[in-house]
Amino acid sequence: MRCGALLDVASAPAANRPLPWWRRIFRRGAPRPLTAGDRPRLRSRPRPRLLLPVVLLVLAAAAWFGRGQLSELFTFTQDRTSDPKPLHADQFRGSSQAPGHTAHAAFDGYNNKYWAPATGGPADGQYLEADFDQPVRLLKLLITSGSSAKEAEFLTQARPSELTVTLVSSEGKRSTKTLKLNDKPGQQTFDVPGTEVTRVRLTVGGAYGVRSDRRVAIAEVEFFGRR
Q1: Keywords for this entry (predicted)?
Q2: Domain contains 119
Q3: Given this model, what pLDDT does residue 74 score?
Q4: Largest separation between any pair of C-alpha atoms in the chain
Q5: How far apart are CA 220 and CA 89, in angstroms?
Q6: Which of 11, 37, 196, 222 could form a disulfide with 142 if both were Cys (CB 3.0 to 4.6 A apart)?
Q7: Which tens digit of pLDDT belongs to each residue from 23-36?
Q8: By 3-state DSSP, what share of the chain in percent is helix, strand and coil, each rounded to 5?
Q9: Position 77 in a domain
Q10: What Cα–Cα distance (Å) separates residue 153 from each residue in 40, 204, 219?
Q11: Where in the sequence is the domain holding 165, given as residue range(s)?
């Protein structure tokens, strides 16, 4: 009772027992005891006074150098979230045209009139062209192939099987895309994206139902996008 020794060794406090090896690996060293008269040192970190301005400068620089990508991302988001609107060209022309079948007939909103080149046959290299008075963001093309949307009239003339679309921007840059058309009456829709477009050319690259007494016909071309 007077010596203070434990009578039951098994009930010794857990603090006096040796720790397992896996806990000793990550154990920090015991704190160094302070001598009489010493006080523990207060650890204080300097306030990050310059951190916020530096972060703002870095973000501003990133936004400045990435403004082109941000603009493209914004345009992409608009294209995906908004419905394209009809775009109306102001001037029309063709490489050639048959009497009564001018280039304007392919852009007048009616599918019972059509453009056709001056001569019959395959018409490879013949083209239609449309100009916009202001640059537009082009997204889609709707093409009504042949001389009419009615099947009986549709088969009376040749129909384009392939069209090469050339987009010309306000800066004179050109981009092309080849469209494969089905041999059927009615509208066919194609994704043809273009930025700051001022001119569109459609060049015939092949045709269905070609004969010397038939001309390749296009009843209607429609543009959709944003101004």
Answers
A1: Membrane, Transmembrane, Transmembrane helix
A2: yes
A3: 45
A4: 129
A5: 13
A6: 222
A7: 666 566 566 666 76
A8: 20, 35, 45
A9: no
A10: 99, 21, 11
A11: 85-226
Spacing of C-alpha 199 from chain mean position:
21
Is 166 contained in some domain? yes
Number of compact structural domains in the chain: 1
- Residue 64 identity: W
For residue 27, the one-letter residue type is R
Q: Among 65, 184, 85, 187, which residue's Cα sits nearest to residue 136?
A: 85
Q: Is the pTM of this model over 0.70?
A: no
Decide if 78 is inside a domain: no
Best CA proximity match to 134, nearest among 91, 174, 100, 176: 91
Task: Report the number of secondary-structure helices (H) and strands (E) in the chain.
Answer: 4, 7
Rounded-to-integer distance, Cα 30 and Cα 52, Å = 37
Give CA–CA dist 92/132, Å, rounded. 10
* Cα–Cα dist 153/146, whole Å: 8
- Residue pair 115/102 in contact (Cβ under 8 Å)? The answer is yes
The tokens describing 148, both together, are: 């009419």
Nearest to 91 by CA among 168, 220, 200: 200
Instruction: Look at phi and psi of residue 109 and say left if phi exceeds 0, alpha if psi is from -120 to 50, else beta.
Output: left
Q: Are 177 and 171 in contact (CB under 8 A)?
A: no
The CATH number assigned to the domain holding 124 equals 2.60.120.260
Rounded-to-integer distance, Cα 115 and Cα 108, Å: 11
- Residues of the chain short of pLDDT 50, as ranges, are 73-74
